[in-house]
């Protein structure tokens, strides 16, 4: 890959990678860090990665970086919350986007990832399989299960206004 092709990749894919990372992490700073790390990795390997494979390479890198970050943050939160008791608050009015976001956040990581790649980023089942390392049929099953879960969550009496 040439330097101009690399710059073209930055122009084409940086926004999509940022949106994907932001949806997974819910933190703008972490999402920006992941975008930067992915493009840094691409530049280090720019002679090995072909231009037409760069999109897949970048989203695969972003997926793995987001999973690593989630695991690291989870360990940090578990360590910080030892012995701390949280109080619950009642659910008051919330707009539809917040309700959907909360329901998506409850999904297992694999289901959340494939659902975001399919419904938010528009990837095909085959592309999602390449990014996540799953077979195409596994991707379809995880997306189906995620949608069933979301449907149950969204029609729950707790979410009705």
TrEMBL record:
Domain RNA polymerase sigma factor 70 region 4 type, first and last residues per copy: 98-150
Domain (RNA polymerase sigma-70 region): residue spans on this chain: 11-75
One of the GO biological process terms: DNA-templated transcription initiation
Signal sequence extent: none
Top-rank taxon, per record: Bacteria
Gene Ontology MF annotations: DNA binding; sigma factor activity
Keywords: DNA-binding, Sigma factor, Transcription, Transcription regulation
Similarity comment: Belongs to the sigma-70 factor family. ECF subfamily.
PANTHER family for this protein: RNA POLYMERASE ECF-TYPE SIGMA FACTO, RNA POLYMERASE SIGMA FACTOR HI_1459-RELATED
Name of the protein: RNA polymerase sigma factor
Species this chain originates from: Tenuifilum thalassicum
UniProt lineage: Bacteria, Pseudomonadati, Bacteroidota, Bacteroidia, Bacteroidales
